[in-house]
Amino acid sequence: MKGLSIRWSLVGAPDGVEEQLAAYVADTSHARFTGMAGLRFKTWRVRPGEWFEGLYLFASDEARAAFQEEFTAGAAEVPGSRMVGAPPVLIEPWDVVAVAEGWEGFEATPRG
After folding, report:
1. Euclidean distance between CA atoms 58 and 35, whole angstroms
2. Residues 13 and 84 sit within 8 Å (Cβ to Cβ)
3. Is the dihedral of CA 28, 33, 34, 37 positive or negative?
4. Residue-by-residue pLDDT tens, the chain, 112 positions
5. Domains in the chain and their CATH numbers?
C-alpha cells in the first residue's frame, strides 16, 4: 500500500481556519473521497495553530502517482490552500508497513 501526506502550515493562518477546514471536510471533501477508485482511505488531521493534513492510502503506486501529479499541479488553488492562505508545505509519498484494525473497528464519518 502506498501513502501520501499533504500538509498545510496553520502558523499565521486566519483565525477560525480550523473550524472552516473541518466544515469543508464534513460538507464537501468527505463525500468526494468516499468511494474514490484507487483510494483505500483518507484521514484528515489537524493540530490547531500548527498544521492541517490529509493522509491518503492508495491501492497502488499508479493510483498514488496519478493523484499526486494532479494535486501538485493545482495545489495552490485547492480549497485548503485558499482557506489557509498558502499552498501545502509538504507533499510526501511514503510506504505502509502494516495496518491493524482494533477491536473498536473502523468508523468512516466526516466528523468525529
Report:
1. 12
2. yes
3. positive
4. 899 999 999 999 999 999 999 999 999 999 999 999 999 999 999 999 999 999 999 999 999 999 999 999 999 999 999 999 999 999 999 999 998 889 888 887 776 5
5. 2-95 (3.30.70.100)
